Every structure is written in C-alpha cells, then in structure tokens.
Amino acid sequence: MIASTRRWIRRNRTNFAIGAGVLGAGYFAGQYVLGKLSEARQRMSDERIAKENLRRRFEQNQEDCSYTVLAILPTATENIIEALPVEQVLEELQKQKAQKVARSVGPSEIASSAAPSVTDGATDDDGKSLTSFQSEGYVHASQIADTESGSGEGQELEKPLISDKPKKSKAQLWNEMKIGSISRAFTLLYTLSLLTLLTRIQLNLLGRRNYLASVVSLASPPTEASKISLENHDDDNFEHAYGNDFETNRRYLSLSWWLLHRGCIDLMRKVTTAVKEVFGSLNPREEITLEKLSELTLEVRKKVEGATDELRRQKKWLPHLLPPPDQESYVLHESGMAESSTSTPSPSLRRLIDETSDLIDSPSFTHVLTLLLDAAFSHLIDTKISQQAYKIPPTSATPARVQEIVGADAKAKVASSLAVFCRQAHAIGSGANNDYAAAVESVNDLEAFAAVVYSSNFEFEAPEAGGTQPTESTTQSVRQSLVEPDGGFESAWGKALAKEDGVK
C-alpha cells in the first residue's frame, strides 16, 4: 500500500507542484492586495486628520486676527481723533452760544437760570443742533468731563487751546464741525477695513510657516536614530513652531505701526479733501434725504477709491499699509524692534515684506477691500444714521448697500446726522463690542482671501529649524486642504471663491 501511494504521488507530482504554486501565488496576491488596502485606508485616515488639523489651525488663526485688530485699532483711533478734535469745535460753539445768551439777558436772569437759558431756551436752529449733540449723548465722555469741571487744572489747560487760536465765526465753526465729523468717521472706516486685511495677511503668512514647520519636522525622520532627541514638536513650543525665527516674526508684525501712526493720517488727509469737495457746500441747517446723504457718501468713496472698476484696480493702498524701503528701519526702531534706526531687515524678513507687498498690490486685495468698505459704510449709513438721525425703525431684512436705501424719502437736518457721525467715530474705533468690526468680519470673501494666503506658496517656504525642505507630497497634501493654487495666487483665489459659491 505504501509503495502504491508513492507511485501515485510520483505520477501526480507535477500537478501537486502546479497546485502549490497557484495556492502560494494566490496567498501572496491576497496579502499584497490587503496590504495596499490597509495602506490606502491609513493614508486616507492620515489625510483626514491632517485636513482637520489644518482647518482647526486656520480657524484659530482667524480668531486671532479678529482679536488682534480690536487690540491695536484704538491706537489708530486715538491718532485720528487727536488730528480731528471735533469735540473742541463743539465746545467752542457751546461757549459762543452761552456768550450770546448772556448778552441777550440781564445779570439777574443769568444767575437764577443760566443752564436752562442755554439748553431749553435755545429756540434757533443752531441752539437746537447743539442741544442734539448734548441731549442725545453724542459728545465724547472725556469732553463732557472737561466741560463740566468748574475749576481746577483741567479747565486751565483747556483755555490756552482756544485762546491761542484766532477766534472763528459761528459759520466757520459749523463748517469745521461738519467736515471734521464726517471725515473722522469715514477715515476710521477705511482704517478698520485696511487694518483687518493687513492683519489677515500677516497672521496667515506666519500661520502658514507655523503649520509647515510642524508638518515637516514631524514627517522628516531623524538623521541619527541612535541619538535621543529632546526636541519638542508640540504646539506649545513657540520658538520651534515659528521656524526658530521668533525675532523675525516680531519685527514683521511690528510693521503695522506704519498704518496706525502714519498711514491712517495720510489717508485722513485724502478723505478730508474729498469730504470738503462733496459736503463743503452743504448747510448744517439744511434738510436732506437719506438717499441724498448716501449719494454724497458714495461720491466721497469714488474720489478716495476710484470712480470706476479700472481706477479701483489701479489704486495703490500699499503706501498706507507698509513703510517704503527707506523707512523700514525707522519703523522698526519706533516700534521698539531695533536699537538703531539704521538697521536693515534680514533676508527672512525681507521675503515676508515682499510677499505681503505683492498680496496688497493684487487685484484680489482691492476686490475684498471694496466689499469690506461696502459692509462698513452700509452699517454706518443704512443702520446707524437711518435709525438715529432719520428715525427709521430697524427692519429684519439685511441692510441695503449705500446706494440702495430703504426709507430714502425720510428727511433730517444735516446737523442731526453730524451728531451721529460724531458719536459713531468712537464706536468705529472701539476695541470692544465693535459692531463695525463684526460687519466687516461677516464678509465671506474675507475668509476666502485668508484661505488663499494661508495655503499658497508652500513650496517657497523653507523651515529654518533643521534646514529640512518640505517634500513634494507634503506640500501637495497641504495645498489641497484649503485650496489648490496650481496656477498661482489668482488661480487659487478663483478656486476659493468657487468653493464659497458651492457652500452657499
């Protein structure tokens, strides 16, 4: 039996060999397929985690941008209000009114009822207009404190401010009040919008470097596996997270000093010139419709930004946002980032400045800025002025743009609108509970623009820590997480807008 079994095996050994080969090949093929499936599953899981991590970082970065704007905006507000001291003009008008009333009544009447004669007894148009500034709370708190103080140091300091200047007529003071109130509010709207965009560019450029440095450091294997590495790749390692170039980033962020101290003042001069040309002939006692006020506001914007799409694209905002190359060292010195005013920016800082300048000069920047200004001016004219000066009740619908006003037939005196402009200037430049900043932040294109800045030009970033260059697969994966700028910045911007439209 054993012999017959051996003979059967010898006769069929070829078949056994073929069968074993087939089974072995099937086994290895199955293992290969399972391995590939496992790799694909792991890769999809890693990509999903990476995308969620990137989106989480991006969203946190946008929140940081909002807080940063509110933190540094009051600096520009203080400089603009100091350059356009509308409250001092109002105080001079109040003093002239008091003197006029004092001359028209007897001394005994002044002693018995001085205050009522100034406020309640003012029956002419100017008296009613000044009363609106007082009774509706449109005078700044610091101005109220100065005027209410009967004696002391504060009063002695206020007198030289007025006595040193030649006395102006009532008409001159009202005209100065008109131009100053409107120019100040408009300048603050421009400053808020520009500061919002500049901060988005700066923090998203640094956020991109932060993310890329962490991705490359985690993805790159150590050069010497036998050594124990004590590097901390966590998010709390601040110096490493920014590519081991913390000083460069501090200097880069300090360049916003230019907008807060110089750019906003230059912009104020241009806005004031435009306001004088458009609102100069308007009488404060005159009644105008809300539609007329909106048209005049739009005319000011055309003079500042450009009357046509082509002129708006050609408008250069860079001089207001960043210092010229010969002033960069001065700005670094003034902001406390450099000991000397002759120090030159490092190559890394120069690269950040150049990329920021390119972004500011791009058509996409002008497009987004126009939308931000639309939202800011609409909130001022369509919401605040219409409700507080024209007494138009708020509606549940979204406020129209400046040129599309609900309740356009309503009329109010120009002086009433000036009172609202005066108060809203402080609201626009406030660092807390700023509904103008909220209106600007609600523009969808702003986040699309930030996403493009955050996700573009990864291939040009070389993390300083470890000198490791990002691999092609790493940059491609990161690039696809938000947008995929395969054709440069403008292509990425178009794809970002297409994604925004798809979400809507």
From TrEMBL:
Keyword terms of this UniProt record: Membrane, Transmembrane, Transmembrane helix
Pfam families xrefs: Peroxin-3
GO biological process, one term: protein import into peroxisome membrane
InterPro entries: Peroxin-3 (IPR006966)
GO cellular component: peroxisomal membrane
GO molecular function, one term: protein-macromolecule adaptor activity
Transmembrane spans: 16-34
PANTHER family: PEROXISOMAL BIOGENESIS FACTOR 3
Protein name: Peroxin-3
Organism, as annotated: Polyplosphaeria fusca
